[in-house]
Amino acid sequence: MIKNAIVGLIFSLAMLGCTGVEKVRITEDFNFDWKFHLGDEAKAFEVNYNDSAWENIRLPHDWSVAHSFTQENTGGATAFLPGGIGWYRKKFHVPLFFKDRMSWVEFDGIYTNSEVWINGHYLGKRPYGYAPFSYLLSPHLRYGEENVIVVKADRSAFLDSRWYPGSGIYRNVKLVTVHKSHIPQWGVFITTPHISEQQAEVKLACDYVLDDVKRDFKIKNTIYFKGKVVASNKSDVNTITKGRDKGTLFLSVKVPNPKLWDVTDPNMYTAVTELLVDGKVCDVVENNFGIRSFHFDAEKGFFLNGKKTLLKGVCLHHDGGLVGAAVPRGVWERRLRILKQAGCNAIRTAHNPPSEEFLDICDEMGFLVQDEAFDEFQNPKDKRNNYNQQSEDEETKGYTYFFDEWSERDLTNMVLRDRNHPSIIMWSIGNEIEWTFPKYGNATGYWGSTKVGDVNYYWDEPPLSIEKIKELFYQSSDQDILVETAHKLSSVIKRLDTSRPVTANLVIPSVSMFSGYADALDIVGLSYRHSVYDYCRRNYPDKVILGTENWTRYHEWKPVVENDYMSGIFMWTGINYMGESHQWPFRGSGSGLLDFAGFEKPSYHMFRSLWNKKPHVFICTQTIGKSPYLLKNDQQLDEKVKDWSKRQKWGWQEVNRHWNYMEGDTVIVEVYTNQEAVELFLNGTSQGVKKLSEVNDHILKWAVPYKGGEIKAQAVNGSAESVIKTAKDPVDVSIQVDKRQLVADGYDVAHVEVQLIDKDVTPVRHFNRQVKFDISGPVKLLGVDNGSPGSVQDYQSQQVITSEGRCLMILQSTREKGKAEIAVTMGAVTKRIELEIH
């Protein structure tokens, strides 16, 4: 939910300020009362266009996710969901007394190729679907009358991305009205360069705009912590700014006994910045921030507030499963809370700027963030085969077509919007860009320079010497556009923020480390290259290196623990995401620790055992034929594929959370734990003790002849255990709801989780049934899902077939108060729950 960025106390003091208006800055939630039409309408931008038949909607809005999965005019890259052209219209009134003020509209993101009109006047376009931007409305507003704002989003190129991007105005919109003397959008930049236990220096760079250069002005900053004033300072006009109608003032505020922001205790402060003209308050801006210090060291890794901290990170795409790209705050909160419980403390926003709201949550929950800008530069990636695409057709034409013209503006807006978030510790300019540059800088390109015959290095150190790789790479004197672009983008960031390092996710470091690409970076991120960590350290000892895209496997985490110079990793991925599918009917990638519905997967428990010190034991099973193991003599197990480079890498091996097999089957029991030793029991009979010190993959394994009943894994020290039981046919459902009371604001959400159970209340995970929902009362159905990558059931439906016996429904409040009733039906069984909307 968008909140007015205003402190009530300051407002009351600022009444009848510059203009005699009660509030000096008004930030309105502009998400409500829009009209939407899917399909091109040539005259929809006209003021008098008849939109009475259009759909009434509230933003954020993603039209693609509302449709059925299909193979017609879609593709696996974008989750088999349609694109198209969508139009939005909103009518609104502006008070007559606003005529002497300024108003602008702020869009946090429109996907994609957006165009905006106000009262028939064309304001401009924005090709990049992830960039925040704004338009000045004042010159074209009709004060005291009705106004019409119109937005067109063009996603005719329905394969313009390698993952599901969503369609339409899928992020929040604000309408901001200020005095002509004001602080511009993103006009306050806050840093905390000097921190001690006794005092923290908070530096603020404050931009201003004046309507009259002859007037006297000041800027005042007041720092709040938990609603109380802890420091303040005021800056007078100086000789540099005097006589100028716009500029920047620099202030420093001392905060005594600071409460630091960190991943375990994310303390947040608020800076309230006032612009005073002739002694009257003309503008007030509020920014939340954290007091913290951090640095990366090439030898020792990452330090937060002076303490060595390992980045236990995941990469996240921006979709929220059944809600698509228009993700309510509560959906992100649930997902991030579950990741946090596993010990995750860092997020890479792969491969685009996230929403402002997402970063607010990261600030509040204590996640460290790598804020990423682009997946492509000038050259496209193939949306069909996920490799280098030599040319774009109309279906796949994406941002690369506009990159040279728009990238600096889009990157600038990302940094300006996001730079006050304490969660952000680095900026990333791009993801795996090198393999799209085969023709620049040389005849063989980045990828070709590492080839030996038809084999590229991937799993081991480069097969060629650095000298030989250089020889291949420098065969041509052509200009290296990649290096030039990387330096340009890095310099854009450095002009705006020198308090954070710049990085990129490199997939061919054996070339990028010497080509000049890595020289544009403060931190070298490595994509699936744990095999060259030591190689990079030996040959480029001054470079800070980091795993920025890694498989969800123990061997990816092991080098971080064993090498001081490694700061951490970002696994691919934290949550299953839509898109990047290579076959129907799979809607997306199953590589996450959580599935599409936000349910925990077995790999989640592996990393919970690695990242969380709280005792943890998790048990799962599989028949030996479907397992990655061979049974040898004396019940000993061996890997079917010994070469780890040829094993499954993305995602996790197929394992089950049930104990339902055929009598006599040989079943492999896998246990993930952070305890030294675990004993396995089958119906109370010990199957032996296994120790982590005896395995090299952090997985304890037993081969057990199947017998119905109970299988239990128990830490030898008694600290934790995990039990699964043989389930009978499902006869009932258990229902869990994360919220029984919702705020009637049109934003709040409740997650309803349903699990099939048998007559003994044992979860039934080997059997699936259809579950139906009947909803009444002041709530909106956002959709249903079962979490499986292979499910292409409609999201916006009141029924769903379970996966592993479970499913999810998400409800959202309206702005009406009352009670909502949900009936959940499975077969002949119906259960009812109530929600209170207040």
TrEMBL record:
<dbReference type="Pfam" id="PF18565">
    <property type="entry name" value="Glyco_hydro2_C5"/>
</dbReference>
<dbReference type="InterPro" id="IPR008979">
    <property type="entry name" value="Galactose-bd-like_sf"/>
</dbReference>
<feature type="domain" description="DUF4982">
    <location>
        <begin position="664"/>
        <end position="717"/>
    </location>
</feature>
<dbReference type="InterPro" id="IPR051913">
    <property type="entry name" value="GH2_Domain-Containing"/>
</dbReference>
<feature type="domain" description="Glycoside hydrolase family 2 catalytic">
    <location>
        <begin position="300"/>
        <end position="433"/>
    </location>
</feature>
<dbReference type="Pfam" id="PF00703">
    <property type="entry name" value="Glyco_hydro_2"/>
</dbReference>
<feature type="domain" description="Glycoside hydrolase family 2">
    <location>
        <begin position="735"/>
        <end position="827"/>
    </location>
</feature>
<dbReference type="InterPro" id="IPR036156">
    <property type="entry name" value="Beta-gal/glucu_dom_sf"/>
</dbReference>
<dbReference type="Pfam" id="PF16355">
    <property type="entry name" value="DUF4982"/>
</dbReference>
<dbReference type="InterPro" id="IPR013783">
    <property type="entry name" value="Ig-like_fold"/>
</dbReference>
<dbReference type="InterPro" id="IPR032311">
    <property type="entry name" value="DUF4982"/>
</dbReference>
<dbReference type="InterPro" id="IPR006101">
    <property type="entry name" value="Glyco_hydro_2"/>
</dbReference>
<feature type="domain" description="Glycoside hydrolase family 2 immunoglobulin-like beta-sandwich">
    <location>
        <begin position="188"/>
        <end position="292"/>
    </location>
</feature>
<dbReference type="InterPro" id="IPR023232">
    <property type="entry name" value="Glyco_hydro_2_AS"/>
</dbReference>
<dbReference type="InterPro" id="IPR006103">
    <property type="entry name" value="Glyco_hydro_2_cat"/>
</dbReference>
<dbReference type="GO" id="GO:0005975">
    <property type="term" value="P:carbohydrate metabolic process"/>
</dbReference>
<comment type="similarity">
    <text>Belongs to the glycosyl hydrolase 2 family.</text>
</comment>
<keyword id="KW-0326">Glycosidase</keyword>
<protein>
    <submittedName>
        <fullName>Beta-galactosidase</fullName>
    </submittedName>
</protein>
<dbReference type="InterPro" id="IPR040605">
    <property type="entry name" value="Glyco_hydro2_dom5"/>
</dbReference>
<keyword id="KW-0378">Hydrolase</keyword>
<dbReference type="Pfam" id="PF02837">
    <property type="entry name" value="Glyco_hydro_2_N"/>
</dbReference>
<dbReference type="InterPro" id="IPR017853">
    <property type="entry name" value="GH"/>
</dbReference>
<feature type="domain" description="Glycosyl hydrolases family 2 sugar binding">
    <location>
        <begin position="83"/>
        <end position="177"/>
    </location>
</feature>
<dbReference type="InterPro" id="IPR006104">
    <property type="entry name" value="Glyco_hydro_2_N"/>
</dbReference>
<dbReference type="GO" id="GO:0004553">
    <property type="term" value="F:hydrolase activity, hydrolyzing O-glycosyl compounds"/>
</dbReference>
<dbReference type="Pfam" id="PF02836">
    <property type="entry name" value="Glyco_hydro_2_C"/>
</dbReference>
<dbReference type="InterPro" id="IPR006102">
    <property type="entry name" value="Ig-like_GH2"/>
</dbReference>
